[in-house]
Design brief:
Layout: E1 2-4, E2 17-21, H1 35-43, E3 54-58, E4 67-72, H2 81-87, E5 98-102, H3 103-106, H4 112-126, E6 142-147, H5 153-174, H6 182-196, E7 201-206, H7 208-213, H8 217-223, E8 231-238, E9 244-255, H9 273-287, E10 293-303, E11 315-317, E12 323-325, H10 333-346, E13 349-356, H11 361-366, E14 371-375, H12 378-390, E15 395-397, H13 402-408, E16 416-417, H14 425-434, E17 442-447, E18 453-454, E19 464-465, H15 470-479
Parallel strand pairs: 1-6, 2-4, 2-5, 5-6, 9-10, 9-13, 12-16, 13-17, 14-15
Antiparallel strand pairs: 3-4, 7-8, 8-10, 11-12, 14-17, 18-19
Length: 482
C-alpha cells in the first residue's frame, strides 16, 4: 500500500534519502558533511550508475538520514521519462517503509511536476502485491515524501488516484473465478459507484430475464453452459451535456473455450481484464471530475460447458437482429461484445470504445507489451495513439480491410461468422465487432490480450495483472475535445 505525504519541504529525518545520479556524474549533491565521501566513492568506481542500479550508502551519523540510496539514471544524453521509469523499478517497500525522494535529482532536463507524477506511478506499480489468497500477507506499506521546491500537491493527488485505480484493476483481474463471478463483479461495481458518492452517476445491473427482454441473445448464448447467471452492468456518469462516449469492457469471468475447449486454460481468469479496466477508468473519471458524459457497459458471464452449452454450428441472433454462425465456441468474447456495443449505441453514445482480451493472434503479432488498436475514425485513433505515447504505454494501429470484412461476412447460413480461423485473427475479431457499429458512431477496439496479464514479467513487475491501458484511456478521455 502506497501513501503520499503532502508536505514537500525538506526536513532533517532519519528515513532513507533517495536521489538519482547519472553515469558520468563526478559527485552527488546531498549535504556538505557527506558530499566529499560520496565523490570519493564515485571516483574510485565503488558506486555504479547504470540505469536502475541501487547503491546503498550508510552515512554513519554524518547527516541525520541513516541511509542514502543513489539510483542510477544511466547516460545523461539518453535520459527521458521512459528512462526515469526504468530507473525506479527497484524502488519499493524493500528499501524501507518510508522513503524521502529528491525530485529535482530525477528531473534534470524534464518537467519536475511530470517527473513527480511518474515517480509516484512507477513506485506504486512496482510496489504492488496481490496476497488475498495467501495465508501470510505481504506487508508492503510504503510512505513516499517527495522533496521539491515546487508545490506538487495537484500532480501528486492525480498520480496517487491513477495508481489506486490501477491497483484496483489489477486486484480484480488477479482474483480467481471462485473469488469473483459475474455477480461478484456486479456487486463490486455497485459498491464502487456508492463509494464515489456523486449525484451525477447512476448504475443499473440487469439479470438474465432482463437481458433476454433486451434481445441480447449473442451474450446469452455464451452463458448457456453456465449455472451462474450473467450480469449486464451499466454505469452512467453525466458531467457534461456533450454527446456521450461509452467504454465497453469484455467481462468473461472465466473462459474454458466451451465445446471448442482450450487445451490450456490456466490464467483464463484474466479474460475479464477489459471489464476491470473500464471500471478503473470510470473510477478515475469520477474522482477527477472529468467533464464528460460517460457510459460504462459490461456483459459479464463465464464460458463453461454443460448439456445446454452453445455448440459449433449454432446460429445466434444478436440485439440488432443480425445472425451469427458459431464456428468456434472459443470465439465467445466477440459475441458478448456484439450485444454490448449495440446496447451502448441504444444509450445514444456517439463514440464507443471497447477493451478486450480478444485474440491470441494479437500476441503473435505484437507480443506482450503492445496493445493492438483498431478503429473506424482516424482522428480518434490518432488521439488514442497520442494518449498512449503521453503515458508511455505502447499501442499499435492494426488494419481492417474489405478482404477481412468479407471473410467475417462469409457465412453460408447467417449474416456473420464468429471465427475465420488462425489467419488475420486479431483483425477479423475487430471486423466482427465493427459489424455491430452503426454509422455515424465513432468506434475503437483495443485488443489487450497480450498486455493484460504477464506470467513471466520482462520488466521486473509483479506476476499477473498489469493494469495497462487504464492510464491511456484516462489520458484519452482527459484530453478529449469538449
Amino acid at each position: 500500500m502506497l501513501e503520499i505525504q503532502k508536505n514537500f519541504v525538506y526536513a532533517a529525518s532519519e528515513k532513507p534519502l533517495v536521489l538519482g545520479v547519472f553515469e558520468d556524474a563526478e559527485k552527488a549533491t546531498i549535504d556538505p558533511k557527506i558530499d566529499p565521501e560520496i565523490a570519493t566513492l564515485i571516483k574510485e568506481k565503488q558506486l555504479k550508475f547504470e540505469i536502475g542500479k541501487v547503491n546503498k550508502v550508510f552515512t554513519f551519523g554524518k547527516i541525520k538520514n541513516q541511509i542514502v540510496y543513489l539510483i542510477g539514471l544511466g547516460k545523461k544524453a539518453e535520459y527521458s521519462y521512459e528512462k526515469l521509469e526504468e530507473s525506479l523499478r527497484d524502488v519499493n517497500y524493500k528499501l524501507g517503509s518510508e522513503l524521502h525522494i529528491l525530485v529535482g535529482s530525477f528531473s534534470e532536463g524534464l518537467c519536475e511536476e511530470e517527473t513527480a507524477k511518474r515517480i509516484i506511478q512507477t513506485v506504486s506499480a512496482y510496489n504492488y502485491k496481490f496476497d488475498e489468497c495467501l495465508s501470510e500477507k505481504i506487508n508492503n506499506d510504503l510512505s513516499l515524501k517527495l522533496i521539491s521546491s515546487h508545490d506538487l500537491s495537484a500532480v501528486a493527488l492525480e498520480a496517487f488516484q491513477i495508481s489506486a485505480a490501477i491497483d484496483n484493476t489489477r486486484d480484480l483481474i488477479n482474483k480467481p473465478y471462485n473469488y469473483l463471478s459475474a455477480a461478484d463483479l456486479a456487486d463490486y461495481a455497485v459498491k464502487l459507484a456508492k463509494s464515489l458518492d456523486d449525484p451525477k452517476l447512476r448504475i443499473r445491473v440487469y439479470g438474465k430475464a432482463e437481458i433476454a427482454e433486451l434481445g441480447m441473445n449473442a451474450f446469452l448464448g455464451v452463458n448457456k453452459g453456465s449455472s451462474a447467471e450473467p450480469k449486464l452492468i451499466h454505469i452512467v456518469y453525466e458531467n457534461s451535456s456533450k454527446p456521450a462516449v461509452a467504454i465497453v469492457g469484455k467481462g468473461l469471468m472465466y473462459d474454458t473455450g466451451g465445446y471448442s475447449i482450450k487445451t490450456q486454460m490456466n490464467n483464463m481468469k484474466d479474460d475479464m481484464s477489459g471489464a476491470a479496466t473500464v471500471l478503473g477508468v470510470f473510477e478515475l473519471a469520477v474522482k477527477r471530475q472529468l467533464p464528460i458524459n460517460l457510459h460504462v457497459v459490461i456483459c459479464a458471464t463465464d464460458n463453461r460447458i454443460n448439456g445446454e452449452a452453445l455448440l459449433p454450428d449454432d446460429v445466434l441472433t444478436a440485439m440488432n437482429k443480425k445472425t451469427i454462425e458459431v464456428v468456434s465456441t472459443d470465439a465467445e468474447g466477440r459475441l458478448t461484445l456484439a450485444d454490448a456495443v449495440c446496447f451502448a449505441q441504444k444509450q445514444r453514445a456517439a463514440e464507443v470504445i471497447d477493451l478486450a482480451t480478444l485474440t491470441g493472434a494479437v500476441c503473435v503479432a505484437l507480443g506482450e507489451y503492445t496493445v493492438g488498436l483498431f478503429g473506424n475514425d482516424q482522428e480518434t485513433v490518432d488521439q488514442m495513439l497520442a494518449a498512449g505515447k503521453a503515458v508511455s504505454e505502447e499501442i499499435w494501429q492494426l488494419p481492417i480491410n474489405d478482404y477481412i470484412r468479407k471473410q467475417v461476412r462469409g457465412s453460408k447460413v447467417a449474416d456473420l461468422t464468429n471465427s475465420t480461423g488462425k489467419n488475420m485473427g486479431a483483425s477479423s475479431g475487430a471486423a466482427f465487432i465493427e459489424a455491430f457499429i452503426d454509422k455515424p458512431t465513432k468506434w475503437m477496439h483495443l485488443d489487450i490480450a497480450g498486455t493484460a496479464f504477464h506470467t513471466s514479467p520482462f520488466y521486473k513487475e509483479f506476476y499477473g495483472a498489469t493494469g495497462l491501458t487504464v492510464k491511456t484511456l484516462y489520458q484519452y478521455l482527459k484530453d478529449r475535445p469538449l
